[in-house]
Amino acid sequence: MTAALEDLWLTYQSTVAFVGLNGLLALSVYATLSCGQLSLAQAGFMALGGYTAAILTFHSGLPFALVLLAATLVPSLAAVPLGFPVLRLKGVFLAIATIGFGEVVRIVFVNLEFTNGALGYTGVPQRTRVWMIYAALAGALFLLWRLRRSRAGYALEAIREDEPAARTMGIHANAYKLSMVVLGAALAGLAGALEAHFTFMVAPSTYSFARVVDMLVYAVVGGAGAFHGPVLGAAFLTLLPEVLREVGSRVGLQPGPLRLFVNGLVLLLVILFLPNGIVSLPQRLRERREARRPGAARAG
Amino acid sequence: MLLELDEVERAFGGVRAVDEASLQVARGEVHGLIGPNGAGKTTLLNLVSGLLRPSGGAVRLDGRRIDRLPPHRIAALGVTRTYQNIRLFGGLSAADNVVVGAHLRRDAPLWRWMLMLPSAGAEQRQARARALDLLRRVGLEARADEKAQNLSYGEQRRVEIARALASEPRVLLLDEPTAGMNPAEVASIAALIRGVAAAGQSVLLVEHNVKLVMAACDRITVLNFGRVIADGPPAQVARDPAVIAAYLGGER
Amino acid sequence: MGQQIVNGLFLGSIYALFALGYTLVFGVLDILNLAHQAVFMLCAYVALLAVGHLHLHLFLAFPLAVLAGGLLGLLVDRVAFRPLRGRSDSNISGLISSIALATILEAVALQLFGPDVERFPFGTVPSRTLRLGGAVVSELQLVIIAIAVGMMAALTLLVQRTRLGRRIRAVAESPRAAQVLGVNVDAVIAASFFISSALGAAAGVLFGLAFNAINPDMGRAVELKGLAVIILGGMGSMTGAAVAGFALGLLEVFTVAQIGSSYRDAIAFGVLFLVLVVRPRGLLGQAATREA
Q1: Any A CB within 8 A of B211 CB
Q2: What is the rounded distance in angstroms from the CA atom of residue A154 to the CA atom of residue A149?
Q3: B71 and A164 Cβ atoms separated by less than 8 Å
Q4: What whole-number distance in Å separates Cα of residue B136 and Cα of residue C17?
Q5: How remote is the C-alpha of A51 from its chain's centroid?
Q6: For residue A295, is pLDDT > 70?
Q7: I need a surface site. Which of A124, B164, B236, C38 has the fewest CB within 10 A?
């Protein structure tokens, strides 16, 4: 009986952990989306965080808290020299450049003998507990929640709405954008470290462009207009395949392709029909109802 | 002289949008900038506010060159503006738009806000109160919490002016602020502009409404094809044959 | 040295063909179609199936796969891009919807074919080699280069000399003006997608033949290199894409010869960064933005 319960917890524990981790990753993408930048370098930052943490765990006796701190700092520092040149780029160019960065990091790790190249580290001790993941997530949510109505938060929204106009109001757009890139890098690095010490391994294949696409999907599906949107998206898209897995296996669908398919389909439906994500659903329904009322007041 | 444009030039490819234009705006002066469509008025404002770099000449504020500075530095030196095609932050409320405008004036260190200190909350309430004040000045206090994109054309223009005033600028650049307004609204804008000047702030007013310009401005510069064809008090400019020719010959 | 040039041109011709697909769509729509690589991958499978299961000769399988690619392109336009026409954020949302569609297509491929590498049946690919100067060139390489260059030439002819080509150029210049002049903009865009994806499909089949390896992941690697190529060549410039494609192929081959193969893929990104930082409009791109 207890063995069955333990089994149950072990299975759910993993899902619960990943909901939290994916939430953190989604927030790291949201950080830059919130000021209008589509920066997709997260896989690279995640790799830097994961590897830093694993290396410190293996080669130093540092307590986990310090390891996590280092894993947050290293990608943050790396984000600065990356940020400077690429922030001048617009839209799709920025996206491409940051994707490139992530890939370069991955390739470097594939070739680094010191870290076992393409195999990476296995046997990373499981120092992460689920509560740590959620503590980190809560911290990130608090940070982003407070940021919203702060002077900086107003500036970020202005930048997202109309960057040149924001500049003429005295807002140092590049400094703000760089800060958000650094924040995104910190969150991705932290998530990478926590994940590495949960899944027992660190390998370049974990940090591929496909991973970044996942994070982007969480943020967009949840809704990139609000700080809690991406977390909702991550939760939804992490749980959905688990729910569908049972159904899928009965029809002969493999879990891997199924998860991919669900991600893609949900993203497509959202971007076509609910572009501001799940969080915008209540507002959209409200607007629909108001528009249908006869004699509804016209704006302006 | 507070604001000085010295033989400013801006070319796009082979076209000289602004051709050796010079003008001066004194402290507390309302200076009109008029001319037919395509004369280069908006380009001139873009040059002053830093969205464009001049290909020749210089722009000076209080004697100091500002034409190579990035827009946010120029704003920090006290130059703000409105836009011909209205560039409000649509998703933000009117009040929030004005609060953003006050960005430079706010003393709100982030760490205080993060720690949820009472002083930070007080500062925020104060920022909002000041924004409401400015909206009251343009007659829009009642619409403060309406999303900017839901406001009418005229209302949006007024919010833009309030936003530009929020940082207490030394020079206010207005780009056709009364386009699409009815005469009553135009009159109130004129009064607002005179009030701003009376407080010691300078205004560079680009306008098509010649009556407004004649009534509200201390001096007027007339632009045609990027060149200055007249510069002086309203009465003098109105009688200038070159000006009359430009307006009769070209579009209004 | 001659050997490297041949190898570089051979690899580059495939990159160029693939990148031209990106460029064509970017030219008319100002959007990057990130589902391009999924079509690339799927049509390689189509060719594989045609040869392996339908026992068609490669001469038939190739055009079949190219046609399939064109049709897929129409689907991509209809599903991922057309519904977004007119939205203010259509650049970013188009990017995202094409990513979504690419993910769906990859999932389908993964489910149908599994993750393992497949190969063409023995004998599909000619294995004769020739000596050309100091280099050993395989018949396959020559055929691939010939087909790629041939398709590029055909594309140039189409764009420069035909009515459709004129319409495509008009829409690329200004959709609004083109519409006023009576051009059916939606149809032209659909045609561009057809051609673009046909090119991508061709590149996919050639790539699969060249390395005799097909798997659902193959699009990913080439996708990013394709992006590097169009950035280097200048987005929207077809000549740029062609030149840059060959350039990247040569660069990669030379790098492998000098430094070793492990950092080969990083070359594309190194180039990418360099270009974006130093000269974002690339070798032949226009600095001016097009009007809406």
Answers
A1: no
A2: 6
A3: yes
A4: 62
A5: 18
A6: no
A7: B236
pLDDT of A294: 64
Asked whether the beta carbons of residue B110 and residue A150 sit closer than 8 angstroms, the reply is yes
SS3 assignment, position B20: strand
| CB-based contacts of A104, cutoff 8 Å, min separation 6 | A44, C266, C269, C270, C273
Q: Which chains touch A (3 or more CB pairs under 8 A)?
A: B, C
DSSP-assigned beta bridge partners for residue B220: B32, B232
- Is B100 in contact with A169 (Cβ distance < 8 A)? yes
CB nearest to C263's CB, from A111, A208, A257: A111
Quick one: tokens of A167? Answer: 């500049």
Q: Are the beta carbons of B103 and A155 separated by less than 8 Å?
A: yes
How far apart CA C162 and CA C157 sit, in angstroms, is 7
Q: How far is it, in rounded angstroms, from Cα B143 to Cα A191?
A: 43
The nearest CA of chain A is from the CA of C13 a distance in Å of 22
Q: Distance (Å) from the C-alpha of residue C134 to the closest C-alpha of chain A? A: 32
Question: Tokens 């050796």 sit at which residue?
Answer: B20
Distance CA A255, CA C254 (A): 41
Give residue C233's identity as a one-letter amino acid code: G
Residue A55, H or E segment: helix A42-59
pLDDT digits (tens, 9 = 90+) for C117-158: 888 887 777 777 877 777 788 888 888 889 999 999 999 999
DSSP 8-class letter at B168: -
Q: Which of 133-192 (A) contact B at CB < 8 A?
A: 143, 146, 149-152, 154-155, 157-158, 161-162, 164-173
| Pairwise CA distance, residues B145 & C254, whole Å | 62
Q: What is the ipTM of this complex?
A: 0.89
Quote the minimal CA–CA distance from A154 to chain B in Å: 6
Are B103 and A169 a contacting pair at CB < 8 A? yes
Query: Which chain A residues are Cβ-neighbours of B72 within 8 angstroms?
Result: 167-173
Q: Which two tokens stand for residue C41?
A: 């991958």
For chain A, say whether B99 makes contact (Cβ under 8 Å): yes
pLDDT tens across C76-116, in order? 999 999 998 877 776 778 888 999 999 999 999 998 998 88
Q: Structure tokens of B137? A: 């000045």
Quick check: B110 contacting A, CB < 8 Å? Answer: yes
SS3 label, residue C60: helix
In whole angstroms, give the CA distance from residue A255 to residue A248. Answer: 7
- CB contact at 8 A, A185 and A204: no
The token duo for B209 is 């409404």
- Residue C88 amino acid letter: S
Q: Kind of pairing, strands C129-132 and B79-81?
A: unpaired
User: In Å, how far are A45, C210, C224, C273 from A211, measured between CA atoms?
Assistant: 12, 28, 15, 21
> Is the Cβ pair A168, B49 closer than 8 Å?
yes
Q: Do C100 and A268 touch (CB under 8 A)?
A: yes
Report pTM. 0.87
Question: Cβ of A91 and C270 within 8 Å?
Answer: no
| Residue with the two structure tokens 């940051």 | A98
Element (H, E) at C9: helix C2-29
Amino acid symbol at A243: V
- From A144's Cα to the closest Cα of chain C, the distance in A is 23
Find the helix or strand (DSSP H, E) in which C131 lies: strand C129-132
- Per the CB < 8 A criterion, the answer to whether C34 and C80 are in contact is no
| Cα C18 from Cα A98, distance rounded (Å) | 21
